[in-house]
Specification:
Layout lengths: L1 H25 L5 H52 L2 H5 L7 E6 L8 H15 L7 E6 L1 H11 L3 E5 L9 H13 L6 E11 L2 E9 L2 H5 L14
Parallel strand pairs: 1-2, 1-4, 2-3
Antiparallel strand pairs: 4-5
Helix pairs in contact: 4-5
GO molecular function, one term: proton-transporting ATP synthase activity, rotational mechanism
Family: Belongs to the ATPase gamma chain family.
Keywords: ATP synthesis, CF(1), Hydrogen ion transport, Ion transport, Membrane, Mitochondrion, Mitochondrion inner membrane, Transport
Amino acid sequence: MGSAENESFSLCKFSSFMFLLHRIQARGMATLKDVAMQLKSIKNIQKITASMKMVASAKYAKADRELRKAIPYGTGAAAFYEKAGLIKKEDQAPAQGHLIIAITSDRGLCGAANNVIGKAIRELIANEPVKDSTKLVLIGDKVRLMLARQHSSRYLLSFADVGKKPPTFEDASTIAQALINCDFEFDKASLFYNKFKSVVAYTTTVQPIFSLEQLQQSSSLAVYDSVDDE
């Protein structure tokens, strides 16, 4: 009888253990089958991520090649303004009409790359010397959405889908012609954009833009040869 009682007691303990194990698994503990399925899912995600990395690397290499072709035009214009003494002269008097051109992306996980431009424009408008003298030309949906709540009344022009393909002179001339045809008269213009440094680094830059009249008034402009004078 003692042996039978021990066997019965052992069976009860085993049954209780299996019952508790089943309850624990039912509450969320994974079985071996669940673990195997999860590992298989992770491996599939790794394959997809590797493919996405390859596609992103190819797109980045293409964008980098296009950017390097355009860099000399921007640096050349900035050097011309500096040599002509226009940048120092531009900061002397408060502008009666200030045009701000902001360039951001339309979408994408760019994070602070877009936010810093919106923040810089808000600070500039808050400290403008002449009230309601600033108008905005927005290239990219991100900056348009960021400033819509407080400064939508200042919107002059907005453009989207500019960066889907490599920028061309035709894109720039279309925007420039729209600015020329607008009714807003301004004596100061600033271009806000992020200057590329590396994949994870950039410099938020404010580039002044000058009119033909301002260029002609520069005393240092004589050091440059003019094709029109010949």
